[in-house]
Amino acid sequence: MRILAPSKRVLLTFTMFTLAYNIHAQDQNLTLNQDPKFEQLLNDKRKINTSINTNDTYKIQIFSGKSEEAKKTLSDFKREYTNIDGTIIFNTPNYKVMVGNFKTRIEAERNLADIRKKYKSVFLIKPSK
Q1: Does the keyword Signal apply (predicted)?
Q2: What's the rounded Cα separation, in Å, for the pair 85 and 61?
Q3: Measured between alpha carbons, how far is 4 from 23 in angstroms, rounded to an integer?
């Protein structure tokens, strides 16, 4: 390894500082132009993701029986409780109306008490882990 003379060392240091001083990385402003439909698609995707059934949420079963009665029960429920989702699941030989996607048992039991006032044979479905 060769040792540089002091004058060469100073010249090399000065050159490095000069080059480093003149470097400007990404000084430009970025303008993003996106299609307005992109935001709509993103919102639709978020809705779909939240409606996907997962096994870690509590549900309330409000009906078990024939198909036509299940459809009527679900439509009546959706009319009365607009903020709670509901779905019909076929489990041989009955159609079951399940409502809610409650993350905690406390939240599910609060809604269960309110729903029990209108629907008599309701019960809580625990998540399977």
Answers
A1: yes
A2: 12
A3: 26
Q: Strand 123-125 relative to strand 94-102: parallel, antiparallel, unpaired? A: unpaired
Please determine, looking at this structure, whether the domain spanning 46-125 carries the CATH number 3.40.190.10.
Answer: no
- pTM (two decimals): 0.55
Residue 48 pairs in a beta bridge with: none
Paired tokens of 93: 């030989």
Query: Using CA atoms, how far apart are residues 65 and 88, in angstroms rounded to an integer?
Result: 11
Q: Which residues contact 98 (CB under 8 A, 6 or more apart)?
A: 59, 60, 61, 62, 86, 87, 88, 89, 125
**What single-letter amino acid sits at 11?**
L
* Of 92, 90, 79, 85, nearest in space to 60 by CA: 85
How is the chain split into domains, by residue range? Answer: 46-125
Q: How confident is the model at residue 4, as a pLDDT?
A: 61
Residue 111 tokens, joined = 């809604």
Task: With CA atoms as reference, report the closest residue to 99 among 63, 69, 129.
Answer: 63
Q: What is the pLDDT of residues 36-87, one digit of tens each?
A: 898 899 888 888 877 665 567 899 999 999 999 999 999 999 999 999 999 9
